[in-house]
Amino acid sequence: MLRTASLAACLLVLLVQTAPTAARGRASEARDLLRAYLELDTSNPPGNENLAARFLRRTLNDAGVPTRLLVSPGGRPSLYARLTSEHPDRGALVLLHHMDVVPPGPGWTSDAFAAEVRDGRLWGRGAVDVKSLGIAHLEAFLELHRGRATLTRDVIFLAVADEEAGGIEGTGWLLAEHGELFERVAAVLGEGGSNRVYRERLAWWGIEVAQKRPLWLRVSAEGRGGHGSSMNLHTAPHRLVRALGRLAERRPSFRVSPDVRRYFESVAALQGSTFQELVDRLDEIVASPEPERELLPGLPNYLVDSVQINTLVSGDRVNVTPSRAEALVDIRLLPDTDADRFLGEVKEILGPDVTVEVLLRAPEAPASPTDTEIYGCFESFLSQRAPVVPTFIAGVTDSRYFRERSIPAYGFSPFILDGPDMRGIHGPDEKISLSAFDDGVRTTVDLVRACTTD
User: Fold this and answer.
1) Domains of the chain by residue range
2) For residue 32, what is the enclosing H or E element?
3) What is the CATH architecture assignment of 214-361?
4) Which CATH number is associated with domain 23-192+397-452?
5) Are 209 and 367 in contact (CB under 8 A)?
6) pLDDT at 16 over 60
7) Does the pLDDT value for residue 5 go beyond 80?
8) What is the pTM of this model?
9) What is the dihedral of CA 36, 59, 410, 380, to 10 degrees?
């Protein structure tokens, strides 16, 4: 009897010691994978996603998971892997992230691709947008595979190219040319989630269900080149600057689209009285002569079709007049804006001295529904920790390609990040808290398991 009790006690101690050890091992593995991923320069342009695709493919293959490499005509690879269940009719869950990142740009205090650990954070381009999410998805996918769990639906791991340049060579091409891979998809889980954090405390999970639409333009002007000393007010730069000046002075029109109204009303109950009063008066505010004077910082972007002139390219010498000048303009449309009408207004403002080329546009697409089985599972699991809010974002992601095909897509970030970490997105010194990353990986693993297994 004593020996049996002693044996049981030893086994209990062993189990208690092993569980944290295994958890620490998985956290260490995820950190190592993220560091290796961040060291790969996949700046877009040009992308170099082959580096990332080989890395992810090797990791999956080493674990015994077969993969498919799907390469666009432009040579841009995307990686596809699938765990099958006995219930394909229930529809698969797609774990989606993009392998490319925006170029680092100036202002970094360390090498953007050194994956340096400093001050409890991992620094590097893609640390938040979105290689960390990709590794969280990878860990969840591998956990299902290694645990030989009984899946209630198929699970797809999808790493795509070209998202930062609009996704034409990535998700857009995949759905157009390999639509059969996504015929039975219940939902897509990707980037775009917007959580609210107060002093490192999670106030709510924001699952993105709707977003703005891109309308990217190249505006160019032609003119006689020559010596810079010659008086000529009709050079390419002068024509372009005059046209862009009129566009920059255009006053935006404020309005409340249905998706934005639903989002504001959803979060109003979780905010203070100031925000609730603002939502109650929203129609009155947007109808006023200067709505921005009454809106809280950041809110105007949800209520206008934004126009940003982001790139100017022309000559490179002060005493030489170039024969061509061009600008890239980033327009983000509200979900229900008539893109053709808006484009026509922009062209009229720019005038006849310039040429307008559409680089990227997206049709209207419905918001992802919140009454699906998958969304219900997400909400049930996540609400144990904080409320869940269906969210509208002013950015754009690859989710729009799936929504255009009536496939529900949900943006979700498992990471609880404060302001300093979020400011690194598309800026210098992008970084992620290691503790937040560890917690986010665990959240993703548990969420995916809860929604895909018995």
Assistant:
1) 23-192+397-452, 214-361
2) helix 2-38
3) 2-Layer Sandwich (3.30)
4) 3.40.630.10
5) yes
6) no
7) no
8) 0.92
9) -100
